[in-house]
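Sample 1 of the test manifest.
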Amino acid sequence: MKAHLSRRYLFSASHRLHSEAMSDEENQSTYGKCNNPYGHGHNYTVEVTVSGPVDDKTGMVCNLADLDGFIEREVLARYGHENLNTIKEFTKEVPTTENLCIQIYEIVQRGFHYAHLERVRLEETMMNSFEYAGKSEPLR
Amino acid sequence: MVYLTRKAEFSASHLYHNPDFTPEENRRIFGKCNNPHGHGHNYTLEVTVKGEVDPRSGFVVDLKQLKEIMHREVLAAMDHRFLNKEVPEFLHQIPTTENIAIAIWHRLAPNLAAAKLHRVRVYETPDLFVDFYGEE
């Protein structure tokens, strides 16, 4: 039997939305308040969904300790309590939640091999969330 | 195709233990969930059915019937129970969130004639849930 396991994690970070490819006026009109030069912050919630057969012996798709450990080391330690604009991958890319969602997906895709990664969902606020399921996977 | 989801909550206790594992393996794999006295959760169940809208009633499924099926087939069996000892599916299978979702699917699917069961989602905590779409 194939099941989909989802786990949610919280981290806080700041960012500023500003593109060097745009003029100051364009940045203002595109990003509005998010263009504040001092940045602003969010409590992000990242929801990781993996899938796979349910192991006969453990009853699990994968061991939560493995998933939690990986996300703690590779995602939360990387982005938690950081200014995203100072992180290497966002020196040339605007740290919108879309781009952050894709980065997190690619980190998990590259490094977590205990189950198949279905999608990453990132909630920026209670009202905005973003999902990425890789280049060719349809969302359910 | 329209998708309709009905939620319910139930409270239950369980523990994770495989009698084929050594005590050390059980502790290493299941950690605190291997506590022999068990521990509990307030589970949230979301049942999603799909179907076409009936032109006379405007329903995908009669919610009163769905609620009754969920109560009879799932809540009556699992609510306020110790899953490992009181629910037949878990006498010889670990009541992980995965296995609970699968067991609930198999309890509901045969009873839903009017609309088809699309997904069973079980939240063990607000930050941990499993979806089962009936895939073998």
